[in-house]
């Protein structure tokens, strides 16, 4: 199918009108993220079917158009299925534009994990595994901000939507065969919710080197992180270009809001940073004055020494279970998830702790209930066929033996 290129507001409006009524709309984006606060959207690829206008294959160039609100509104409205691969940034673009995510999302990366062993898997890997085709991936180092784009670049970009409908059909058939449609819907809803919550989440605890700092220093880290985020957004720069993590930690250790002391920290007089020292001093002052009750973690019983041993023992068994169930173990659980469930069941959490991931929903159905049965002696693990790629078996133990 030949494609069309959308270069004007009028052409975008016409495209959106023709997209109305589509049963499925697939899309992908090309963006550059290293030089701006938010990723810079450079291209949108669209494929659609089921509308009165017939099949559509198009690329939308944001540079000459500017306002893409009609397209994002179209994606968020209507009964169509929206298909994308690893759609975190695509969701973010839509929410940033109109404060709503695309409607009825089917993420091919996420959905493929419910019927195959790899997660997270690249688009090309999913296409090859599910459809036995090899997408053209010859322009991976393209700077999508430069114009004009070549035919080869456009063809490369369109590869990321050519197979979306075929993937949707085949993956959904597999998921329905395995009886996991409800699992996928639950996980997709949780994925979209997590992306939305992450937009406003304060990730100051992720500042490299801040682990182990005393609570007053952590309060300073938090205030400096908040200032950095606001300044980065105002100047449209990546946050670490405003103030590096190591400088945040060093300032938090010094615990002084005196400007001469701040200037004395190596690295604080480079470029625009020295002009921001009064604002940095004010942020440190807020950290010095801020309450710290919310920075003190809840006390919990120390975990037993056997917890790591149990986790190490169960992790490969659970991985074998997932392989047998045709589901990606990396999606189903992590080694930390397994340890958290064991710790929770053994009473080493706190009253404020939420139930762990493996104690609820489809993860409990697939994994958590099995771990519970293993911990209570209702099931055992044995080696079945040592030559098999799935050598472990889970056997039910006779109830009389459990009581004994």
From TrEMBL:
Its EC number is 3.1.13.5. The keyword Hydrolase applies. GO terms for molecular function: 3'-5' exonuclease activity; nucleic acid binding; nucleotide binding; ribonuclease D activity. PROSITE patterns: HRDC. Gene3D superfamilies: HRDC domain, Ribonuclease H-like superfamily/Ribonuclease H. Pfam families: DNA_pol_A_exo1, HRDC. Keywords: Hydrolase. Residues 214-294 form the HRDC domain. One of its GO terms (biological process) is nucleobase-containing compound metabolic process. It comes from the Bacteria. InterPro entries: 3'-5'_exonuclease_dom, HRDC-like_sf, HRDC_dom, HRDC_dom_sf, RNase_D-like, RNaseH-like_sf, RNaseH_sf. This is Ribonuclease D.
């Amino acid at each position: 199918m030949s494609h069309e290129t959308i270069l004007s507001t009028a052409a975008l409006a016409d495209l959106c009108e023709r997209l109305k009524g589509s049963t499925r709309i697939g899309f992908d984006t090309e963006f550059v993220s290293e030089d701006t606060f938010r990723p810079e959207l450079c291209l949108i690829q669209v494929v659609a079917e089921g509308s009165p206008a017939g099949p559509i294959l198009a690329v939308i160039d944001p540079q000459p158009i500017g306002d893409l609100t009609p397209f994002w509104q179209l994606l968020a409205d209507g009964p169509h299925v929206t298909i994308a691969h690893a759609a975190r940034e695509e969701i973010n673009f839509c929410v940033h534009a109109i404060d709503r995510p695309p409607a009825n999302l089917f993420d091919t990366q996420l959905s493929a994990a419910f019927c195959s062993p790899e997660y997270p898997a690249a688009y090309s890997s999913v296409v090859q595994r599910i459809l036995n085709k090899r997408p053209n991936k010859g322009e991976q180092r393209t700077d999508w901000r430069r114009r004009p784009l070549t035919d080869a670049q456009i063809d490369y970009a369109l590869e990321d939507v050519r197979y979306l409908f075929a993937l949707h059909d085949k993956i959904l058939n597999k998921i329905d065969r395995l009886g996991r449609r409800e699992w996928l819907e639950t996980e997709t809803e949780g994925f979209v919710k997590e992306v939305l919550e992450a937009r406003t989440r304060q990730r100051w605890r992720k500042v490299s080197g801040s682990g182990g700092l005393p609570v007053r220093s952590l309060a300073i880290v938090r205030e400096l992180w908040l200032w950095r985020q606001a300044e980065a957004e105002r100047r449209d720069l990546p946050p670490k270009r405003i103030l590096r993590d190591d400088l945040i930690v060093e300032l938090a250790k010094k615990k002084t809001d005196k400007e001469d002391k701040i200037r004395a920290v190596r690295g604080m007089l480079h470029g625009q940073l020295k002009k921001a020292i009064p604002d940095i001093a004010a942020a440190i002052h807020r950290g010095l004055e801020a309450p710290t009750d919310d920075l003190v973690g809840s006390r919990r019983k120390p975990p037993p020494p056997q917890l790591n041993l149990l986790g190490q023992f169960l992790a490969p068994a659970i991985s074998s279970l997932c392989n047998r169930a045709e589901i990606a173990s990396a999606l189903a659980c992590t080694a930390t998830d397994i340890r958290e469930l064991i710790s929770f069941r053994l009473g080493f959490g706190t009253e404020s702790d939420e139930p762990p991931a493996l104690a609820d929903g489809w993860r409990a159905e697939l994994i958590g209930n099995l771990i519970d049965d293993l911990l209570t002696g209702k099931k055992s693990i044995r080696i079945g066929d040592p030559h098999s790629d799935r050598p472990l078996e889970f056997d039910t133990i006779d109830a009389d033996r459990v009581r004994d």
